[in-house]
What does this fold into?
Amino acid sequence: MEIIKYLGDILATEISISPPAARGLLKLAIKDQIGPFKKLAEIDLNDLQNVIKGSLSKRLIELEVNDPEIIIDLIENELILNQSLITITKI
It folds into this structure.
């Protein structure tokens, strides 16, 4: 899913980890929030927004990342601005 790669790259830059690690963090947050049975290709914009505000935010706080609220706001804004990536990958 392109949106995971895109958001993972942003997250990696913001918290100074590798892009694959950031994508892994996002995927773990998705599994926490949505569960293991929904495929990444079935996730919609609302699901991702809930993951970002919920599980990802919690994980960043637990990892003691500086300014997690700012990072969450940035990622959520990028998601909204680039929501067409979600639609494109579902075609």
Observations:
- The chain has one domain: 2-90.
- The helical segments are 2-15, 19-34, 45-62, 68-81, 84-90.
- The chain has five helices and no strands.
